[in-house]
Amino acid sequence: MERKGRRRGGRAYSRKIKEAVHLLFFKRHRLPGARGWELRKELGPEFPEVLEALDTYLRDLDLKVTRVFDEPELVSGEPTREQLMEARYYITLRGTMTPKTAKMCGWRIDDIAGLAVAVAYLISKRGRAPRADVERILEEKLPGWRVDVNLDRYIREGYLGEDDKGNLYLDWRSRVEIDQKQLVSLILGFRK
Amino acid sequence: MRSREEEKLRERLRSVIELCRSVREAGLDPFSVDTDYVLSIIRKFFPRVRSLEDFCLDAEALKELSSVLEEQGNWIEHQSTSLYKDPFLIEKRIREMGAERLAEVFLRSWHPIVALEQISTTSLKNSMEYWKDLLPLDERWSREEPRVLETGRASLEEAIRLGFISERDFALELETLWAELRGRVGEEGKIRYWDFIGAETYEETLWRAFLTSFLVSYGYATLEVDPVKEEVYLLPYEEQREAQGPTKSIPIPVDYEEWRRWREREGGGEGEPTQGR
């Protein structure tokens, strides 16, 4: 019932939904997606409703509209208008990928495991830790020569960032793509 | 005079400031700082504060310590949230899990971005032009066999025509121009740049501007820029001078339009174009 209502709402925004698709699917800047203020400029002040309607359409395709705040820790409860304007919106996979699909996208099992280790380790350190510490824990999972190569790849692809003091942190792509709570819960729930 | 003990205390205070700062800046575990120890050092140092420098050091230590305490507060706050999980336990689990299992849990938490890269009209146009100018593969990959060429002699005129040697003796021309510059400056010892390089033809003007740039670079003359009148003057030296201190480049455009305006001002009209050099 609720779904039908949403569909009706979607029809009312049909032109704007198409515009939102163009804005969010096609990469126009260095990073994919669009900021809230960009969407407001193109779609008008009701852009959150347009995105909600688009999200309903995307559900059948196993996709969704994801909203990410620059400083999520500052957003408690309902985000303010300013936070909504500064937030970045992306289209992401709603469900998850199978190992087979991930391999076809160019990710080896080792690479994914390495990323899982690095991200989980950084989450446990509140999002930031010296690179040497991350390398040390990765060396237990990957051959030595691949540790550096893999870390550089994670940095290049936007999952990790490195500051000038040699500390690694979770970068924009980790915030968008990884359900951090879920990852940590699954790791902690592991039993031998 | 500072006692040895005071100096030692000062050194300790500096090192705890550095420790607090590094923990704060690197976002490391703030509980790794022993705040009681830092406080004891500050307490010992405070009664011996004598100079402004010591006072600043003491204040800095207090500031850094309070930053660490603030971080500890944030850390505790984070531990009370649902996202906090014991780091030790996470590390232990990571060590226990195999690569395949780690990849599996990651894939269950991973929702990759969907985005399309597209080519712009400009890139498409550039690519087409590149493609159009690209030689066929058989031409690009064809091996150039060494060719035997007949040697011969070229006359001086031919060498000049082909541009291998200059028609003019560069050093001699430079000398002549330097002498001309010294002769043309008035009592002020300087001449407007355009009045000196300007000639009947645009090509000759370019040649004089080219030579003049060497006069300045080699230390036979210098440039003076009047920013108010937007004028550039040339000042010759009587003898070649070594550059004193750092040198700088002054770009002066000598374009055709500027030359035409100069000719009109001089009342000479547009000169006959001559063969370029």
Shape of chain B: flat
Question: What is the radius of gyration of chain A computed over CA atoms, rounded to a whole number of angstroms?
Answer: 19 Å
Largest interface: A-B, 59 and 40 residues
Output mean pLDDT of chain A.
Answer: 86
| CA distance, first residue to last residue of chain A | 44 Å
Q: What's the CATH architecture name of one domain in chain B?
A: Orthogonal Bundle
Task: Please state the oligomeric state of the protein chains shown.
Answer: heterodimer
How many strand elements of chain A?
6
Largest sheet of chain A: 3 strands, antiparallel
Overall tally of domains of chain A:
2
Helix content class of chain B:
40-55%
Helix segment tally of chain B: 12
Which structural class fits the helix and strand makeup of chain B? mainly alpha
Shape verdict of chain A = globular
Distance between the termini of chain B: 76 Å
Major beta sheet, strand line-up of chain A: 1-3-2
The number of distinct β-strands of chain B equals 3
Description:
The complex is a heterodimer of chains A (192) and B (277). Chain A has 192 residues and is α+β, with helices and mostly antiparallel strands. Chain A folds into 2 domains: 2-95, no CATH class; 101-189, Winged helix-like DNA-binding domain superfamily/Winged helix DNA-binding domain (Arc Repressor Mutant, subunit A). Chain A has helices at residues 2-12, 14-25, 36-43, 47-59, 81-86, 99-104, 109-124, 131-138, 144-156, 172-177, 180-188; strands at residues 34-35, 63-68, 88-93, 128-130, 160-162, 167-170. Chain A has a 3-stranded antiparallel beta sheet with strand order 1-3-2. Chain A is globular, with a radius of gyration of 19 Å. In chain B, strands 1-3-2 form a 3-stranded antiparallel beta sheet. Chain B has helices at 4-26, 35-45, 52-79, 87-96, 99-107, 121-133, 137-140, 156-161, 170-184, 193-197, 202-217, 256-266; strands at 191-192, 221-226, 231-236. In chain B, helix 1 packs antiparallel against helix 2 (35-45) and helix 9 crosses helix 11. Chain B is mostly helical. The radius of gyration of chain B is 38 Å and the shape is flat. Among the domains of chain B are: 4-81; 170-265, Structural maintenance of chromosome 1. Chain E (Arc Repressor Mutant, subunit A, Orthogonal Bundle). The chains are: A alpha+beta (192), B mainly alpha (277).
